[in-house]
Every structure is written in C-alpha cells, then in structure tokens.
Specification:
single chain, 552 residues, alpha+beta, seven-stranded antiparallel beta sheet, 35 strands
C-alpha cells in the first residue's frame, strides 16, 4: 500500500508520488529537468564555438598569408609646396613605386609588369589598374576637401591631419581612403592605412623686393617732367611677374615725390601664405607694394610751346573757309625753323568748328628734326597738338542785307553811273535784292547784292542793274566785295530784273530787300572811282538766318 501524504495547501491525504493535489490543484512535486539533456546542449554549443573559431582562424590565415599585402606608406607620397612655416601638404600615389611604374613591355627602363606582380601580363595589368583605382586620391590634391569622383560617386580621398602652414618637425597623420571590399574580393590587403610622417627638409623662402634693380628715368624740364621705369636691371622673376604704375607720372618738378606701385601678375600667388612659386622655388612677397621716389635730374632747358604766337590765316567764305597759312612772324624763330603744321581739317570750315593742329618736325635735306635737335638748341617741347575754334571774326560773309552797309556798296557803283549823271539828269535807286548761294559750289559767289537804278533823261526813263558779290567784313572791320557792271539798259524794269536778277535764282535764294535810308538818289557826281574795298566804320556781325521774303 502506497504511503500517504497530506497536501500542503488543503490538508487532504494524497499518495506519495502524486504531483498535483486532486482536491485543490496545487503542484506537490514539480518535475525536474533531466541533467543529461542539459549536458547535451552544452556540448553542442562548445562544438559550434570550436568550429567557428577554426573557420575564423582559417580565414585569418588565408587573409594573412594568401592575400597580396601592400604597405600604404610605400604606395603613397606626401608632398609639400612652399617654404618652412607656410608649406601646404598633399598626397599623391608614389610615382617611384614599381607597382605603378611597371609597364607591359618594360621599355624606357621601366620594370616589367609581369615580374613586379609575379603573374602573367594580363592579370598583372588588371591588378595594377585595380590598385590605382581603389586608392582614393583627391581629384585636386591641393583641395582642402579631398573630394574625388569614382564611377559617378563622390568620396573623401586620402587626407592629412594638417595641410596648411606646415613647418619642419610637424608630425602629420595620413589617413588612407580606399575601396576595402573591392580589394578584399580581389585578394588584396592594404597595410598601414593610417600612418604618421615627420616633416623635414622644408627650406626658408626668400623675400622678393620688386623694386630691386628698378631704374627710374626722369625726362623733361622743371614743371613738365615725366618718369618712365626700366626693368632691365631686375631679376627675371620680377621682370616677368610684376607690373608697375606711377602716380603722378607727368608734370613733375625737381624734388617732387612720386608713388610707384608694384603688382604681382603671375599665376602662382598663394594668398594664405603670401608666397609664389617660380622655377621650382618658393618666395615670399606682397601681392601689391609701394615705394616713394623723389624726382631728380630734370633738365633745365626752356620749355617751347610750338603754338605760341602762331596765327592761322584763312581764305574763302564761311562755311567754306580753308586754312591758307600759319603765320609765325610773331613767334619764336625756333618754331619756324623746326616745325610745320598740319590740321585735322583744313577745308570747308565755318565759324565755331573745332580743329586739331599738330606741330610736326620739319624735314630738311632728307633729315627730319627730332627732340634731340630741339634740346641741342636749348628747348624742350611742351606739346605737339592744340585745338582751335574757328573764330566768328574770320571772313564774316553777309547772310542778309542788314549785315552790311548797303550805302557803301552803292558808292562803288558811282563810276559806272557817272556817265548818266549830268546836270539835267537824275538817277534814282528804285529796287534792291539780296541772294545767298544754295550749294557748296565754291566756284560761285557766296552771296550777291543787286541794285536797279532808274535814270531819267529828257523825261525818258531807262533802268540799269549793278551787283556786288562775296560781301564780308574782315577782322579789321573793312567791308570787302567785288562788283559787276552790266552795260545794258532798258526802259522796262521787268526786263532788267528778269535778265540779271531772276536768272540767278537757280543757284541763289533771292529776296527783295528795302532800299536803304540814304541811297545814292538825286545827286550828281563829277569825279568818282569804283573801288572793291571800303572801310566800314562799324562792322556788322553775321546772322545765321536767311531772308525768305518772296519776290514782288
């Protein structure tokens, strides 16, 4: 009979081996796991760990001993541009490493590709290309971002812990950037992917003085001196890479101070370090520097203005004036000896036109004078050009009848009229006309003035026509003109007007004008002389407007 026990929960009797009380469902004897099963699980885990360790060891052995290993410190070259304390560092592939210099043919003293990689040429070439492409070097090695593009993707290339203002003694860490898995699957392992280098061998840069050897050449005379710069004494570095400006550079006097500015114009200037590279060496300099120079050695020769007291003479009719000559009679004799003059425009001139006159050295016996010839005579040339404005006073041709004294023109007709002027005869000015030339045809008179006279003889009337042309007042106030006397007369005034006035309307704009207040009317002249020039006591000025009154 089985031994009885009491339930710890309800107190009811139950058999010894009962696991759960049938009265209260309390677990009396919990089932314990078998020790043997736990041991089996433990053993399995140990074996899994051992197998993984063996696999890892095998892979490590393969990676270590079967993979091709290359030392990054030998594959890469760390370079420096600049001088001590201002150098810039950058990384490139080591161009001296045979892994990169080997070629398929071994020509030009290059290593043979198959020998360097210890495999056939095709595989060696593929491996060389892979190695070159898998190490990321910045597209611009001097770019501070180290960016490089590989197969359309942007990567950060191999970098330096310090890239600027490098000096001797600096320790710089090189961090290699590369395609790790690309190389792994090709059986290549890179060692020393992060290594340190200690900087040495940087030289101290020389300082450039762009003014060293520069020659200042002063020419001219006191108050009119000029300066030019001669760089022939400068080094080739300075002469080829600097430009100069001077302020002021003209109208200098002895003792004046000028400022010379030297500006570097080369392409290798580094703004951060203030250095330039030239012919493989580095130099310190300012991109722009100035120097003050005192003016010396100006000549004491007399300054000659070749236009002083030179007068331009004009011929012709405004607006068809022309330059006839240059009067140097009142000027320094040196001017007429050494110079002749040329105008930018010498014909078809009018009052108010601006022309440029150039003083040109004369040529005598096939030899042209020069500045040196003038200096030997004790003079320095001030200038060679001068502008002139054609003055209003030059050849002021009448543009309408009110701009000249009609009475004075009438007096010039008295000789022709004297044949009709006897005691019983009477002469009367009855009509006046004034005309301006329409075209630029200089063969025609610029202006014309007509007078028609009525002559009464024994109660019979006849008509005469006289004209004056090219009427103008010169600079001295003289009234100038030429006259035309027509021998024909007619008792019909219209006939005379038509024949001698109206026929000119093709070439002239003609209008009738008033008979002057004090004409040559009703007077007798016993002795007169026809003249073409009469002194005008008060010359009249030109008027630009033309008379447009219609013919009666």
């Amino acid at each position: 009979m089985s031994k009885k026990l009491k339930c710890k929960n309800c107190g009811e009797e139950i058999t010894k081996n009962t696991r759960i009380c049938p009265y209260c469902d309390t677990e009396i004897n919990p089932k314990k796991p078998k020790k043997r099963r736990a041991m089996k699980i433990f053993v399995v885990l140990i074996w899994i760990i051992l197998i993984l360790a063996i696999i890892a060891s095998a892979l490590w052995a393969i990676y270590t001993f079967a993979f091709r290993s290359y030392d990054c410190e030998e594959l890469l070259s760390v370079n420096f541009d600049g001088s001590n304390k201002s150098a810039i560092g950058y990384v490139t592939l080591n161009e001296d490493n045979s892994l990169f210099t080997a070629t398929e043919t071994g020509k030009d003293n290059t290593p043979l590709l198959s020998d360097v990689y210890n495999m056939d040429t095709d595989k060696a070439s593929e491996l060389q290309t892979l190695l070159i492409d898998s190490i990321y070097i910045a597209d611009d090695p001097r770019d501070e971002t180290y960016k490089t593009e590989v197969n359309g993707k942007i990567y950060t290339g191999t970098s330096l812990s310090k890239r600027e203002n490098i000096k001797n003694g600096d320790v710089i860490t090189v961090t290699v950037s590369y395609d790790k898995w690309g190389l792994f699957f090709k059986g290549i392992r890179l060692e020393n992917t992060e290594f340190d280098i200690k900087v040495s061998g940087l030289t101290t840069s020389s300082t450039i003085d762009p003014f060293e050897g520069l020659n200042y050449i002063f020419t001219g005379v006191e108050g009119y001196g000029e300066v030019t710069l001669d760089t022939s004494g400068c080094s080739s570095l300075v002469a080829n890479n600097f430009e100069y400006s001077v302020s002021p550079s003209t109208y200098l006097s002895e003792g004046d101070e000028i400022t010379v500015t030297a500006t570097y114009t080369g392409k290798t200037y580094d703004d951060e370090s203030g250095t330039i590279e030239y012919d493989g060496k580095y130099y310190s300099c300012l991109k722009e520097s100035t120097k003050t120079v005192t003016v010396t050695t100006l000549s004491s020769t007399e300054v000659l203005d070749p236009f002083e007291n030179v007068t331009i003479e004009y011929d012709g009719i405004d607006p068809f004036l022309s330059i006839s000559s240059y009067d140097t009679s009142q000027a320094n004799k040196v001017i007429s000896t050494y110079f002749e003059f040329e105008a930018s425009k010498s014909e078809n001139l009018k009052a108010g036109d601006v022309i440029t006159v150039t003083a040109v050295y004369k040529t005598v016996d096939d030899k042209q004078y020069t500045d040196k010839d003038l200096e030997s005579a004790g003079y320095t040339l001030l200038k060679t050009e001068r502008t002139y404005t054609i003055p209003d006073e030059v050849a002021k041709y009448a543009k309408k009848s009110s701009s000249f004294n009609q009475n004075k023109v009438s007096k010039s007709f008295t000789t022709a009229l004297s044949a009709y002027m006897v005691d019983e005869n009477k002469v009367k000015l009855v009509r006046c006309y004034f005309g301006l030339r329409k075209s630029s045809d200089t063969s025609l008179a610029y202006n014309k003035y007509y007078e028609i006279y009525e002559v009464t003889v024994d109660s019979s009337k006849t008509y005469l026509v006289f004209s004056a042309e090219n009427i103008y007042t010169d600079e001295d106030g003289n009234l100038n003109f030429s006259i035309n006397v027509y021998d024909e007369s007619s008792p019909n005034i219209s006939v005379m007007k038509s024949k001698y006035v109206d026929t000119d309307k093709t070439d002239y704009t003609i209008s009738e004008v008033d008979v002057p207040d004090s004409p040559v009317n009703n007077f007798n002249i016993t002795t007169t002389t026809t003249t073409t020039t009469a002194t005008d006591e008060s010359s009249s000025s030109d008027d630009d407007s033309d008379s447009s009154e219609s013919e009666e």
